[in-house]
Amino acid sequence: MKASASDQRSILDIQNFDLHSATLKNKAATLPELAEITSSTIKANNVRDLRIAAETELSDVKRELLRAEGDVEQIVTRITRDETRLASGTGTPKELEQTQHELVTLGARRSELEEVELEIMLRVDGLKERIAALTAEEAELAAIIADLNIRKENAMAAINTELEGIATDRAATTQSVSTEFLALYEKIRGADGGIGAAALAGNQCKGCHLTLNAHELQRITGLADDEVIRCEECRCILVRDH
Length: 242
Known about the structure:
It contains 5 helices and 4 strands, in the order H-H-H-H-E-E-H-E-E. The protein has helices at residues 5-29, 32-88, 93-174, 179-191, 214-221, and strands at 197-201, 204-205, 229-230, 237-239.
């Protein structure tokens, strides 16, 4: 294939545009904010799950507290009833003695139940503190994620603006290149990891960075300027310094 020296210089410019675009796209895909957002989102989800679990446990403990309060209330009602009966002196001496014994038993039972009630109340307070701390942590992580998203969007906007500029310049450059030559470049580039053309600097291919042997270099030197040459190693289009 033949291509003018101008077309060959343009194809090298197009390759540079494509390499720059690939670098920018890789930068967009590997923005540090993306990894930080993923990490912070996982943390936020874990904290949310812990908060929900704590709220569920709090509901259960509150029901337990209501039962304990009910048990204490029943004992207090019985104690009040017995104390009233004892104070009135109504009943036989034996009945009054039994009532007094019952009051001692009820008093001991009341102390036990109130200790249980207090322990449950402490658990309620502990859970409330834990929920408050987790809620605050959720809010903090949400603020961090929001800030990271803003930073990500700003970085992506800058990259996209640069990509649009490159695309515009590339499109303008391709207008002056022959369709056949451009198609060859695209075919090679698609099959060789994004490298379709490279400069020949001295005796080195800048695509694969391998050195051409003296015989091949001599052969290339003898070719016309419009002759399209290919690297024997990576097969990309070699653009000479015309």
